């Protein structure tokens, strides 16, 4: 245990040195104060309690790991991190945002969040008016960024994922006839499903069954599964969360139907669920920006540090997106000239210009060479993995 | 073939509604109160069985018995603490208290066991394939139907033939008169809750075996659906709960298959409204006019 910790520390120091070298070059001589690094306050918002607590907690811990690493670099920028609970509700998110503004007082503040879409839309309208730079790890709806030049996403948008999924099916040729089962009560699911169907038709795939269900509390999907079976779908696209997906796959197995199941990033995290029968999702293909089993040093260091914070829970894509957010903010700040004199609004304009300038690229756990479009949407390629014996492998 | 398949899906779904509805109707029939916390007792039962099997490695049957024991105690405790002090209060007060107990159990479960969905290991796995695999019936669905029938027969015999059962019916007819006849009304009602809660544990284990996901809100949602089934069949009537549950399952499945998956709930409740317009007491319920 001690040894492991030591190795992790040593590795993170090596990593830190590497990053510092890259960052320091640009900044040297430009820094006003000789030894005092510039401190940027990062105000995080997300649900730490309530139904969605697992997502907010992951984005909080993921970011914390990155902040600790960054501050240990002794680079030109230090991050002062604070995370407020929004319980997943819009009202609480706005008050969390206000208390973060009070916390920052006159220091430059960057908003990190919100974790979920609805609170994020509300908070982004506020930050747009108040001119704070905002980067969300996981709020995936285009509504979050539309018309706001200060808000950026680390995760894919829902339609973006649907399009990528259709392209993947077409390019790999794994199926010609596809079925879709989605939750038409959810913006996430509907956005992804509609984009998938439109793109699939455009690419000449045959969409033989489109089935819906009204909410993720539904437990019986036999009718939808049988409709896909009767229509002869070779692949069933499931742009939904893993709880309904595992039920759909179990019920398909019970009725002797064995198509390829293909899901989006909502499937991620299921293998960490207590008592989850990985056998029920064996062979599932899913798009995820993050693979916890990635053997790179940066990832293993992250996983080790994260587990120390979480008490053994493995990081998921929310955690990794959070980690990448901190590095994106840090590396962008390192590139800014005269950051020592900037207030929040000036920092917001400078960061937004840098993110949309086309030159700025970040390597992270969820993608390499990530850049941002002027819409605020991230540009990175999705990774498709297959579930095999309870872990993710290359399909 | 697809018609037959949908019928089987409907009956399987309906059998789960029915077994929950039996608990609702039992308590309503005797204590004349809607125990909205019933769904949450189901959830507690499922969690007990989940941990018995998952953390202590007990066999499923022992887990089920343990769940029934815990729920029986829970049912009696809830009745003593929350409902008994309100015996003379208007029924609306009891109803609101029941909703409060329901939230208490849900949030308590969230604190104790977390909000994340857990995967339940079914007590019975596998399915029966007929007609060369074109028709399949899961063993859990068969077990649920058998359990419903057994419970229904036992409850009918119990309330009809035994002394305690007669005492329950007497309390249901007229509490005051029953007391004058020397029946201990309080302990009779406690007994009703004990039986209802034990049934809830059974329902929880069967439901989570059929649809193997478990979270603190699992019971509340299916509880509402099962309550609808109980009203549909005639609340207070034991065979009515069974009939209502099965019919509700079939209607829901057919509406999904032949009308629209999005509109299935609207169709289910539309049928319920029509039934209640024609037979206000439900399919098998007795209509007792209130004396004013």
Written account of the structure:
The complex is a heterodimer of chains A (395) and B (292). Chain A is an alpha/beta fold. Chain A contains 11 helices and 15 strands. The longest helix of chain A is centred in the N-terminal third of the chain and has 26 residues. Chain B has 292 residues and is mainly alpha-helical. In chain B, 50% of the residues are buried. Chain B contains 11 helices and 4 strands; from the N terminus they run ααααβββααααβααα. The N and C termini of chain B lie far apart (54 Å). The interface between A and B is medium-sized, with 31 and 35 residues.
Summarize the structure.
The complex is a heterodimer of chains A (395) and B (292). With 395 residues, chain A is an alpha/beta fold.
Shape of chain B: globular
Globular, elongated, flat, extended or rod-shaped: what is the shape of chain A?
elongated
**Strands of chain B, count:** 4
Strand segment count of chain A: 15
Beta content of chain B? under 5%
The N- to C-terminal Cα distance of chain B equals 54 Å
Strand order of the largest sheet of chain A: 7-6-8-9-10-14-15
C-alpha Rg of chain A, in Å? 21 Å
What about the largest sheet of chain B?
A: 2 strands, antiparallel
What is the topological layout?
The complex is a heterodimer of chains A (395) and B (292).
Chain A: H1 2-27, E1 38-46, H2 53-72, E2 77-85, H3 90-104, E3 109-113, H4 117-130, E4 133-136, E5 151-153, H5 158-172, E6 177-183, H6 187-202, E7 206-213, H7 222-230, E8 235-238, H8 242-254, E9 260-263, E10 285-288, H9 297-310, H10 317-335, H11 344-356, E11 362-364, E12 367-372, E13 378-379, E14 383-388, E15 391-393
Parallel strand pairs in A: 1-2, 1-3, 3-4, 4-5, 6-7, 6-8, 8-9, 9-10
Antiparallel strand pairs in A: 10-14, 11-12, 12-13, 14-15
Chain B: H1 2-31, H2 38-54, H3 60-83, H4 91-113, E1 118-119, E2 127-130, E3 135-138, H5 139-161, H6 163-173, H7 175-180, H8 185-210, E4 213-214, H9 218-233, H10 238-258, H11 264-278
Antiparallel strand pairs in B: 1-4, 2-3
Helix pairs in contact in B: 1-5, 1-8, 1-9, 1-10, 2-3, 2-4, 2-8, 2-9, 3-8, 5-6, 5-8, 6-8, 9-10, 10-11
């Amino acid at each position: 245990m001690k040894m492991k910790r030591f190795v992790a520390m040593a590795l993170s120091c090596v990593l830190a040195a590497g990053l510092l070298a890259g960052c320091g070059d640009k900044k040297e001589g430009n820094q006003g104060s000789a030894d005092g690094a510039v401190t940027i306050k990062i105000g995080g918002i997300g649900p730490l309690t309530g139904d969605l607590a697992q997502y907010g907690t992951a984005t909080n811990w993921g970011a914390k790991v990155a902040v600790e690493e960054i501050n240990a670099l002794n680079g030109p920028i230090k991050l002062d991190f604070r995370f407020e609970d929004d319980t997943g509700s819009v009202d609480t998110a706005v008050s969390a945002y206000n208390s973060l503004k009070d916390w920052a007082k006159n220091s430059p503040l960057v908003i990190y969040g919100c974790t979920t879409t609805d609170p994020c839309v509300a908070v982004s309208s506020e930050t747009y008016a108040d001119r704070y730079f905002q980067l969300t790890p996981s709020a995936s709806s285009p509504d979050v960024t539309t018309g706001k030049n200060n808000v950026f996403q680390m995760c894919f948008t829902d339609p973006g994922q649907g399009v990528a999924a259709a392209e993947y099916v077409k390019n790999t040729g794994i199926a010609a006839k596809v079925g879709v089962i989605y939750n038409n009560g959810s913006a996430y699911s509907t956005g992804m499903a509609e984009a998938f169907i439109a793109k699939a038709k455009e690419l000449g795939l045959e969409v033989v069954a489109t089935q819906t269900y009204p909410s993720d509390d539904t437990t019986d999907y036999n009718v939808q599964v049988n409709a896909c079976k009767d229509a002869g779908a070779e692949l069933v696209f499931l742009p939904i969360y893993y709880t309904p997906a595992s039920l759909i796959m179990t019920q398909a197995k019970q009725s002797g139907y064995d198509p390829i199941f293909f899901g989006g990033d909502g499937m991620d995290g299921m293998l960490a669920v207590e008592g989850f029968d990985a056998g029920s999702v064996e062979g599932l293909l899913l798009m995820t920006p993050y693979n916890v089993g990635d053997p790179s040093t940066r990832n293993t260091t992250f996983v080790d540090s994260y587990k120390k914070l979480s008490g053994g829970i493995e990081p998921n894509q929310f955690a990794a997106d959070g980690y990448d957010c901190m590095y994106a903010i840090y590396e962008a700040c390192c590139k800014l000239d005269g950051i020592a004199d900037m207030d929040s609004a000036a920092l917001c304009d400078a960061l937004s210009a840098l993110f949309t300038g086309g030159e700025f690229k970040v390597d992270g756990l969820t993608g390499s060479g990530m850049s941002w479009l002027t819409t605020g949407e991230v540009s990175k390629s999705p990774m498709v993995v297959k579930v095999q014996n309870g872990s993710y492998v290359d399909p | 073939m697809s018609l037959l398949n949908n019928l089987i899906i409907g009956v399987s779904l309906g059998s789960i509604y029915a077994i929950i509805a039996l608990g609702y109707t039992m308590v309503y029939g005797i204590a004349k109160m809607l125990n909205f916390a019933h769904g949450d007792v189901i959830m507690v039962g499922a969690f007990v069985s989940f941990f018995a099997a998952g953390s202590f490695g007990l066999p499923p049957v022992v887990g089920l018995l343990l769940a029934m024991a815990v729920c029986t105690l829970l049912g009696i405790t809830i009745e003593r603490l929350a409902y008994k002090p309100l015996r003379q209060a208007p029924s609306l007060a009891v109803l609101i208290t029941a909703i409060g107990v329901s939230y208490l159990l849900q949030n308590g479960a969230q604190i104790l066991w977390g909000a994340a969905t857990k995967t339940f290991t079914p007590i019975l796995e596998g399915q029966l394939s007929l007609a060369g695999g074109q028709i399949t019936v899961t063993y859990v669905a068969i077990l649920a139907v058998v359990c419903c029938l057994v419970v229904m027969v036992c409850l009918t015999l119990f309330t009809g033939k035994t002394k305690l059962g007669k005492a329950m019916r007497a309390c249901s007819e007229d509490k005051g008169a029953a007391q004058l006849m020397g029946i201990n009304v309080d302990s009779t009602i406690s007994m009703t809750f004990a039986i209802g809660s034990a049934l809830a544990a059974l329902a929880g284990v069967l439901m989570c075996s059929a649809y193997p996901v478990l979270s603190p809100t699992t019971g509340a949602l299916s509880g509402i659906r099962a309550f609808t089934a109980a009203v549909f069949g005639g609340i207070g009537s034991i065979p009515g709960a069974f009939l209502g549950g099965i019919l509700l399952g079939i209607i829901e499945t057919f509406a999904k298959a032949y009308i629209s998956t999005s509109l299935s709930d609207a169709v289910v409740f539309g049928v319920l409204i029509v039934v209640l317009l024609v037979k206000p007491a439900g399919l098998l319920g007795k209509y007792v006019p209130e004396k004013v």
